[in-house]
Amino acid sequence: MFTGIVEELGDVVAIEDLGDASRFRLRGPLVTEGAKHGDSIAVNGVCLTVVETGEGEFTADVMAETLKRSSLGALSAGGKVNLERPMALGGRLGGHLVQGHVDGTGAIVERVPAEHWEIVRISLPAELSRYVVEKGSITVDGISLTVVEAGTDYFTVSLIPTTLGLTTLGFKQSGDPVNLEVDVIAKYVERLYGDRVTASRAAAE
Q1: Rounded CA separation 42/47 (Å)
Q2: N or C: which end of the chain has fewer CB within 10 A?
Q3: pLDDT at 165 over 70
Q4: Weakest mean pLDDT among 91-95, 142-146, 154-158, 200-204
Q5: Range 104-189: architecture per CATH
């Protein structure tokens, strides 16, 4: 489980094509400190398993399904990625509960700079729109953000200078893809409510 508070802006060192998967080599001295084989690290919001570590770098295998369903497939050597280690039990929950399981991808639509912040509009897949509400939480490329405006096919977020300076959202441009993870609590509520309605209808019949 993660919190959506990015710890480090890492580098894509190399990507090796394995046929039905890819092996990513990523540089992140902070998140690799003490990391070992089998540990989890979120890369742009995608929970990956560490294969090897050494000299501030780690490798992780990414299967074809993940490459297809996330923006990781668009990465190349030299790119930047948001990195976060899992939250330690008893640690502070600075953002919100983030699983590292991407629900879909969107794209940067528009950036509107202000004096002390920036408003970013991001496209939203239709099947995810019901989970996104004004002032609710959403994860964008692994960053826990608060929704400013929720439309049927888009949402907006307001980015402070820290977020702009320390994450990939500081330099992504219109058209660039981003990973989206909606609030898992909303999905559980929907499932529980749906099961309850179904049971009530069955009892009535």
Answers
A1: 4
A2: C
A3: yes
A4: 200-204
A5: Beta Barrel (2.40)
Token pair for residue 36? 């070992």
* Residues constituting the chain: 205
The arithmetic mean of pLDDT across residues 66-77, rounded, is 93
What confidence score (pLDDT) does residue 92 get? 74
Q: Which residue is associated with the tokens 């049971």?
A: 199
**Which residues of the chain does CATH 2.40.30.20 include?**
8-84, 104-189
What CATH architecture is 8-84?
Beta Barrel (2.40)
Does position 204 have pLDDT exceeding 60, yes or no?
Answer: no
Output the pLDDT for position 199. Answer: 47
Q: How far apart are CA 149 and CA 176, in angstroms?
A: 20
SS (H, E, C) the chain: CECCCCCEEEEEEEEEECCCEEEEEEECHHHHCCCCCCCEEEECCEEEEEEEEECCEEEEEEEHHHHHHCHHHHCCCCCEEEEECCCCCCCCCCCCCECCCCCEEEEEEEEEECCCCEEEEEECCHHHHHHCCCCCEEEECCEEEEEEEECCCEEEEEECHHHHHHCHHHCCCCCCEEEEEECHHHHHHHHHHHHHHHHHHHHHC
Please count the other Cβ atoms lying within 10 Å of the Cβ belonging to residue 144: 24
- Could you give the CA distance from residue 20 to residue 1 in angstroms, rounded to a whole number? 27
- Is 55 in contact with 43 (CB distance < 8 Å)? no
User: Span 25-33, mean pLDDT?
Assistant: 97
